[in-house]
Amino acid sequence: MAQLWGGRFTKETDKDVYLFNASISYDKRLYQQDIEGSIAHAIMLEKQGILTLEEKDEIVKGLSTIRKRLEEGSLTISEEYEDIHSFVEATLTGMIGDAGKKLHTGRSRNDQVALDMKMYVRSEIINIDEELKAFQVILLRVMEENLETYMPGFTHLQKAQPVTLAHHMGAYFEMLRRDRSRLSDIYERLNYCPLGAGALAGTTYPLDRGYTASMLGFEGPTLNSMDSVSDRDYVIELLSALSTIMMHLSRFSEEVILWNSNEYGFVEIDDAFSTGSSIMPQKKNPDIAELVRGKTGRVYGHLMAMLTTMKGLPLAYNKDMQEDKEGAFDAIDTVKECLVMFMQMVDSMKFRKDVMAKSAMRGFTNATDAADYLVKHGVPFRDAHGIIGQLVLKCIEKDKSIEELSLEELKEISDVFEADIYDAVSLKTCVERRLTTGAPGISAMRGVLAEYRKYLKG
Fold it and tell me: Total structural domains in the chain?
């Protein structure tokens, strides 16, 4: 069992205890960050006169070789080591000798793992943001192609008013825009370097923490050594942001599942993103949407686990914090996989425009506009509301939409109706009259699309 801390102990750790304590089975994915941080630390130690130039060069060359060999596959991370830090340092020392033993001068595994995790989270924020942006590009294309694709808008899952598919998709574009903004905020807050904080109280070595922070792309060093090693706010914030992303994908999934049903028939999911039934040959199941919806709870669970882990920890570092990694790694992997699969499904999905329009008409989504028509012809709104309620009942009895009723049938409800009612309640008119910013009217939507194109170029 390879350990960095055995000097104080008179016998080896029990094997089962050692395995329970070890983290290398999952923190080995931090090897790039661990090596990059160690190279920066060695360069800083030489700058400060703590290492000789020769020692620094040996260490940097050795670490670079380890990284290259790991990437090539000619070196494998051995799980006989307690963690990735132990593996890298032991491998380095085996390659270059005593100079490798000096690498850890002025740092602790506490600030080392905090650095590795921050650098990993930082890089994954960039990766997830790129996936979100790619999804927005797909949504923008769907919006541009469907400015006049009419469909029902819903409240309480009841058909309410007519909108367009472009307008509906714009709601998800906005959700993803907020998701990207949250990730940007987290990146900005976490981007301060904990390296050099030591175990909790800094070090007596004359480290230049600002120099190390600059080399590693941080805004600067953290300003409290105790907080530096015990802070996992950025992990909690990331898990919260990832949970919100999954909530948005889950809402979208729910709609795709509904739209794919025989009762709605709004969309046709590409065969590549569907499965069949082992017993019912007619089935075409929206499995991707269902899995994304299901995996949302998994990401939520990791957020709750991390909040619970941190809630009772005294300052500074505690071994409980080792639990920050597996959940965060899984949540990151899950969100990235869900984004890729879901956006590909949407990109290949076919929208049945005729079914959507018919659903909007048969759902009386133009009832509000019919009431507005009466108001414009001098009927008090409350009376107009009641008249249109009677009109809807008549339509239901006759199994017709409002525009399918004859003028004679309309006048049986109110003699205010004239031939121009048909234009007033057409889906096109209902949508086009809504021109305020954020509304589904085509001119308003074109302004929004221009803003989105500009946003995506930024």
Answer: 3
Sign of CA dihedral 10, 16, 17, 19: positive
86 falls within a domain? yes
Q: What 3 state SS string does 221-241 have?
A: ECCCHHHHHHCCHHHHHHHHH
**In a shared domain, residues 27 and 67:** yes
**Predicted model pTM:** 0.92
Residue 205's SS3 state is coil
Q: Are residues 166 and 296 in the same domain?
A: yes
In this structure, the answer to whether residues 382 and 414 fall within a common structural domain is yes
Question: Residue 257 carries which DSSP code?
Answer: H
DSSP label at residue 426: S
| Residue 264 belongs to some domain of the structure | yes
Q: Is the peptide bond preceding residue 40 cis, with omega within 30 degrees of 0?
A: no
Dist CA 330 CA 243 (whole Å):
12
In a domain, 215, yes or no: no
Q: Which residues are catalytic?
A: 156, 277
β partners of residue 285: 275
| 263 domain-assigned | yes
HSE of 443 in the Cβ direction (CA atoms, 13 Å)? Answer: 6
pLDDT average per 10 residues of sequence, the chain (458 residues): 53 77 94 98 98 98 98 96 96 97 97 98 98 98 98 95 97 98 98 98 98 98 98 98 98 97 95 74 83 98 98 97 97 98 97 96 90 95 95 93 93 95 94 95 97 96
Do 130 and 181 sit in the same domain of this protein?
A: yes
Query: What would the 3-class secondary structure string for 345-379 be?
Result: HHHHCEECHHHHHHHHHHCCCCHHHHHHHHHHCCC
CATH number of 163's domain:
1.20.200.10
Give the structural domain span for 255: 110-148+159-205+223-351
